[in-house]
Amino acid sequence: MSLWQAPIPVLGWGVYGGLLKRAIAIMKYENQPQIARPLGQWLGEAWLSNACKGKQQPLVIPIPLHSSKQKQRGYNQAALIAQSFCCTTGLKLKINGLERVRETKAQFGLSVSERENNLTEAFAVGQELRTRHLNIPVLLIDDIYTTGATAKSAVQTLRQHGIAVSGLAAVATTIKN
Hints:
This protein has a single domain (about 1-175), classed as Rossmann fold (3-Layer(aba) Sandwich), CATH 3.40.50. The protein has helices at about 20-30, 35-50, 65-75, 75-90, 110-120, 125-130, 150-160; strands at about 1-5, 10-15, 60, 100, 125, 140-145, 165-175. About 40% of the residues are buried. Helix content is about 40%, strand content about 20%. By secondary structure, the chain is an alpha/beta fold. The strands form 2 sheets. It has a 5-stranded mixed β-sheet. A two-stranded antiparallel sheet has the order 4-5. The model has no long low-confidence stretch (mean pLDDT about 85).
């Protein structure tokens, strides 16, 4: 488990490799959404043991898939992880807090700059959050954190709407040198 300052603080439960990498791939590409439940629980337990007590409890928002990708897969793995995470932590979930409004290429195999360009203006604040002022911070949830391009794009979108982001929690993170 690791916690470090990136564009925002990132909590990672495990290192992206070996069995964890395989479990995430099976969950996403072999139609095994139930794998999200233990992953979200473990991430939630890691968050509870690292969370600063007494701080304002954030609202949890999963990183969204574009509607066409979600229709093809049948589910958003980050949303399923976030549901389990919230069952474990007791935090409130806003499943549609963000929308992916632009279809993007898969990030796998892209360079850091290609990843950032790929995600420019990819997100929009969800309908529910657009219409009311949110006075609590947001915690983003994703399955994998690699270069931070996805998080950076999501954070920019939320901050443009006056929504503070306290960090991102991901099941797996790549090791940074």
